[in-house]
Structures are given as C-alpha cells and as structure tokens.
Amino acid sequence: TRMPEAKIAPSMLSSDFANLAVEAKRMVKNGADWLHLDVMDGHFVPNLTMGAPIISCLRKHTDAFFGRPLIVIWRLRGTDCHMMVAKPEQWVDDIAKAGGEMYTFHIEATQEPVALIKQIHAAGMKAGVAIKPKTPAEVVIGEVGELADMVLVMTVEPGFGGQRFMAECMPKVELLRSKYPHLDIEVDGGLSLETIDASAEAGANVIVAGTGVFKAEDPSQVIGTFREKVNTAQAKIASAAAKQ
C-alpha cells in the first residue's frame, strides 16, 4: 500500500454562501482535491449551515462548470461531508442521493459507530469518523479505525469557522498515524501557512482550510504549499517507519 497522499479540502464554510457554486469552481481551479462541506444541525453544534438540498444543487453546478461526466469530476473532486449533527444515522441516504462521497460523522453523536460505518458503506459512500478536541484518539482505535476510510481530528471546537488552531491536538494525529500508516487522517480548524507544519509533521494528510485559503491573495499558492509540506512529511514518516 502506498503512503497516504496529500488531499487539500477547502472548507466551504468560509466561502461566500451567496455564491457557493462560483466559490466551489474557484477552489477547484486553484487546485483543491476535495470540497469540505460542513453540515450543522443546530443540535450537535450551535450553528445551522447547509443540508442535502444545497449539496445536491452544488453538485449540478459543478458538473456544468466542467462539462465532463459527473462521476469523473466527483471522483477527482470529492464532496467531503462533515456531519456535525445529533443523529448522523438519519441523514446517510439523503447525503448519498445528493452526491456526497465521504460521510464523516462525529463519534460523540452515536452509540453505534461500527453499524453507522457499515450503513455509510452500504449507501455507496466512504466513511469518516471525527473526534472533537477533548475526545481522546483511543475511542477510534480498534474496530472503528480499521473500518473507517478516514479519521478527522478536529483542531478547533466544531460549529464555527475562523477559530484558533489547537496545537495540543497534534499528539492524537501522531498516535493515529503510528497505528494506521495508510489511513487518511484529516485535520480541520485554523489551518493556515502558520499551522500547516505542525499538522503535516504529526502525520495528517487531508488538510481542511477555510479562511486560510478563501481569504488568501493567492489560493493556488497556499494549496500548493500545503500539498508539498504534507507529501514531504509523509515521505519522512514512511522512511522512519521502514527503518524500525
């Protein structure tokens, strides 16, 4: 199995919501691998954002922009749906129908993470598992980590964009990377040119960035720098592991 590759996923939470389709196109043009879509229900987090109808519309628009068959685009440009919702089981089919590719639920929001991962896979999506800053990495180590396609380590409290990056979450990333050398490990919250080194060196390969990319003078340069730093760090981690 090859080492995990960098995937840069701009967070649409930091985009101009009145121009979502234009913003999505701009990010893909600037080199985004995935689009990170924050679904908040006002229960699990104290904020409301978007749901399946908006994701569905966005998918149609993105298809129109590229003029290529839908499936090709979305295999290249994944919809990374971060479900900050109280009942993640309830929305699996809706998000699958809307064109979600990765369904990332919070472990804190479910009693049955393994059953939920299987439900997500049965709906034809990849399953991600997110942990909040105060949740230990140990809760996803074992069957959950083995079945999941991705683990998301939140580096801010979920619910709002523009928060300060919590470097104290990095030991969790390191632990998960040492246990699962080939797993996609995502970090989300406060990622910028100032905080990318800590995340990359800890072993994260999927980088969610909101204001750090959307407000940048040159988003393509930021995305390119993130990619280079992650891939360099992954090569180092792989070579260190091979020497052990």
From TrEMBL:
Pathway participation: Carbohydrate degradation; pentose phosphate pathway; D-xylulose 5-phosphate from D-ribulose 5-phosphate (non-oxidative stage): step 1/1
Active site: 38 (proton acceptor), 188 (proton donor)
Keyword check for Cytoplasm: no
Keywords on record: Cobalt, Isomerase, Manganese, Metal-binding, Zinc
EC code: 5.1.3.1
GO BP term, example: carbohydrate metabolic process
Pfam families: Ribul_P_3_epim (PF00834)
InterPro entries, A to Z: Aldolase_TIM, Ribul_P_3_epim, Ribul_P_3_epim-like, RibuloseP-bd_barrel
Protein name (Swiss-Prot/TrEMBL): Ribulose-phosphate 3-epimerase
Organism: Umbelopsis vinacea
